[in-house]
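Translate structure to sequence.
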């Protein structure tokens, strides 16, 4: 809404609405300066607004500007000041000395991968680091996934051997997924409350 007003609807606002509009912008700029969160959005907004104001001030008499021209020149100067403040904004680097996923031992990372029941989750996690990629390509991991979701008769019909003659369990998983539905998982059993007549998780 603020962007739309900045681009084309500024002159359609009443004097009070325009004053409120600039007060809101002032609060947004202050908030961004304090939190340093998403400054790009407000920079784009101020750029659009300053362009619109420059055109309106140059074309005074042709366009409808509510209020004295000097007020609008002051507002333009305020916008330019905000832009300068945001330009000088030094983004603080977030320092985090805690453990990251990469710091976990291999067996723990492996255990995490074995907890996934969706092949796409395994592939996505494998893209995070080279170590996770190596673990995500493990044949045993994909074999377990196939055995969990599909019956032996199902994957015996669609055996996909690799170049070395081994079964390519990863390809098998995605091939079987096209033919058969994967097993649905539920975090907890639903319960029924006789007093409230509603379903709920324990």
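Result:
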């Amino acid at each position: 809404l603020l962007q739309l007003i900045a681009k084309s609807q500024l002159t359609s606002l009443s004097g009070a609405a325009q004053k409120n509009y600039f007060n809101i912008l002032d609060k947004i700029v202050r908030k961004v300066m304090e939190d340093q969160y998403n400054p790009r959005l407000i920079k784009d907004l101020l750029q659009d607004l300053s362009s619109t104001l420059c055109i309106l001030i140059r074309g005074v008499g042709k366009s409808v500007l509510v209020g004295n021209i000097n007020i609008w020149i002051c507002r333009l100067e305020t916008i330019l000041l905000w832009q300068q403040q945001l330009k000088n904004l030094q983004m603080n680097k977030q320092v985090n000395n805690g453990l990251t996923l990469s710091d976990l031992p291999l067996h723990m990372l492996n255990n995490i991968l074995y907890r996934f029941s969706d092949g796409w989750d395994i592939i996505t996690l494998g893209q995070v680091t080279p170590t996770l990629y190596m673990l995500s390509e493990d044949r045993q991991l994909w074999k377990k996934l196939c055995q969990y979701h599909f019956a032996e008769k199902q994957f015996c019909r669609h055996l996909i051997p690799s170049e070395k003659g081994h079964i390519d369990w990863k390809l098998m998983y995605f091939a079987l997924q096209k033919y058969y539905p994967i097993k649905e998982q539920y975090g907890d059993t639903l319960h029924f409350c006789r007093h409230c007549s509603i379903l709920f998780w324990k």
